Amino acid sequence: MRAKLSAAVTAVVFLCIFQFQSLSQAEKLKTFRFEYGNFNQSFYNILDVKNATISNGALQITPDTAQEESYMLNTSGRIFFSKSFRLWDSSDVKTRVASFNSSFLLNIFPQKGFAAEGVTFLISPTKDAPPANSYGEYLGLTNATTDGNSRNQIVAVEFDTFKQDYDPDGNHVGLDINGVRSKMVESLGPHGIILAPISTIAIYYNIWVCYDGVAKVIEVYMAEQKRNDPTPPRPFSPVLRSEINLREHLNQESYFGFSASTGIKFQLNCVLRWNFTIEYFPQKKGSLWVIAVAMAMAVAVVVGSIIGGVWVLWRKRRVRSKSAILGALQSLPGTARGFEFKDLKKATNKFDEKNKLGEGGYGVVYKGVLAGEELEIAVKIFSRDSIKQEDDFLAELTIINRLRHKHLVKLLGWCHNKHGKLLLVYEYLPNGSLDKHLFSKSGGVPLSWNLRYKIASGVASALHYLHNEYEQTVVHRDLKPSNIMLDSNFNARLGDFGLARALDNERSSYSETAGVMGTVGYIAPECFHTGKATPQSDVYAFGAVLLEIVCGKRAGAKIGGFEYLVDWVWHLHRDGRILDAVDGTLGDEYAVEEAERLLLLGLACSHPTANQRPQTSAIVQMMLGFLPVPHVPPFKPSFVWSSMVPTSIDSSLTETSSFTTSLNSSAVYTQ
């Protein structure tokens, strides 16, 4: 029966193909046009950003930061317009290809006196992130394994700033097909163009990449211009011209965008304006009744197979998943043990709401008492979707299972039951979380100054262990009062490692593909631009916690006309009244010298520039009074984003000129 239905569907499919091919001439080409400038966060809804950022009015194709150099070395990124375009009509015997005109304002700014590697205007079959190891000479296009492979189906115009063995020089434009060895290349020196001048003045070039889909010719034009000036007229002569039939090299449905890379040297690769017009081929609509019949017949065959097949696949996947996660759990080193789900269910009185201790994006925590052991425990049940929760579960478990420190919450064990529920079992800490003591409105007794200082010292010690004393650097990524637990003696225990990540020895940061993770108010400003968590970003969060401990106010509290607590404290510091920030519920019951030390240290840790924040090793010494707190300027420094100026330029200049733009943002669609 199934074979007969399949044959029927095949006949219908051929009928559909015949119907499509017998339609009259292809529909008239459609035109799509946009004009974008002054890029901001809203463009994340329009563009697909892969290992790149949008900030300071520009598309930052590769990392652009005033922080550690390691962020900018050996990286690659891509940014695409989110919509794909159909570049030709399969039934068009004339084999015409879509024509387009892409113009963009490009700024390549060398750092440390060297340029590397380059930027491309890219046409790709997917919006995928750059391939692994596509940094350096591969410009975010390919890597050593895939370079030159015709299955890549990419065409790019490269603006190369670093000479490889196969390049004429380190200042050229090239046409790349499926690889970085250009099919046609033109040195730019004879044209009076230097893509990446070693200068303290940023140079901008407006670039036109034009393709004639009838003549099958691509042309590239370039003209220098100032950043905020209108687009200049296109030059009379192109710097590169080549015949190319894109139909022979690209996927019929393709995406347009940019890629870039850095190597052992680095530069800023920025696009500040992008105008794009394309005449593309719309999808044919075909005959509605034929489509309806085809779909009905296909459904008749497929539904039965799906119902049975999905069940079988689900069972197999569940068995494989359960086997894989149990294998990972049973191979864990350390003293964590496996608990029976029935025992945890009994311990928490069937996870009674009365026993709920807290709830977050990763799960719910319940208090329990293990029968027979009279041991109080905290049970965390992961609540995210099945595949993602396994990743979160194993990430948290594999990290905290190996950590041993008196100021970290102790893991007792884990549970993975037959229904796929994932649980972690921790020691129960009777005094709950720090935030309940700092910000509670129940009118309870406020934390004494001695307890506050002890808690702050404990958190500093735990953070120093994570960053420096464990075999790998661990970034917590979610340091805040609700994740600082207190034992019966009010000793701090840092917990909730659901976002924590251990860094390999050669890495200094962790990048989250899903976006910036953490809690607003504790996220360092550079994380919004780089998407990377570092020990320095943990220190920023610690600074916020210090201010909260001393002030008794939340980091995100609006106070005295200021948006955040840190701004209010900095304002008091400027006026010489920093001790006015001390929690009023303490009265005079605090040590003035210690309070001033913690407030200044909190501001130092909250410095907008990551490399100006103290290291945790120094923080511990400062907490003990063995080292002085670093100088804290009276005015809060600005966060300097170095996309258009070198980091050596005085910041007062960047605030008044280089960081402003008058580009207008608009989008025009003509269908």
Keywords summarizing the entry:
alpha+beta; eight-stranded antiparallel beta sheet; 12 helices; 28 strands
What does this structure look like?
The chain has 671 residues and is of the alpha+beta class. The protein is built from twelve helices and 28 strands. A hairpin with a 2-residue loop joins strand 3 (53-55) and strand 4. The longest helix has 43 residues, at 288-330. The chain is elongated, with a radius of gyration of 30 Å.
What percentage of residues falls in helices of 4 or more residues?
A: 25-40%
Structural class: alpha+beta
Number of helices: 12
- N/C terminus separation: 46 Å
What fraction strand?
15-25%
Looking at the structure, what is the overall shape? elongated
Question: How many distinct beta strands?
Answer: 28
Uncertain ranges: 1-26, 318-324, 504-516, 641-671
Radius of gyration: 30 Å
- Sheet with the most strands, sense and barrel status: 8 strands, antiparallel
In short:
The chain is 26% helix and 23% strand.
Layout of helices and strands:
Elements: H1 2-21, E1 30-37, E2 47-50, E3 53-55, E4 58-60, E5 76-81, E6 85-86, E7 99-110, E8 118-124, E9 155-160, E10 172-177, E11 184-187, E12 204-212, E13 217-225, E14 240-243, E15 253-261, E16 267-280, H2 288-330, E17 337-338, H3 341-347, E18 356-360, E19 363-370, E20 375-382, H4 386-400, E21 411-416, E22 422-427, H5 434-438, H6 449-469, E23 473-475, E24 484-486, E25 492-494, E26 501-503, E27 510-511, H7 527-530, E28 532-533, H8 535-551, H9 565-574, H10 592-605, H11 616-623, H12 651-658
Parallel strand pairs: 17-21
Antiparallel strand pairs: 1-16, 2-5, 3-4, 4-16, 5-15, 6-15, 7-12, 7-16, 8-9, 8-15, 9-10, 10-11, 12-13, 13-14, 18-19, 19-20, 20-22, 21-22, 23-26, 24-25, 27-28
Helix pairs in contact: 1-2, 6-8, 6-11, 8-10, 9-10
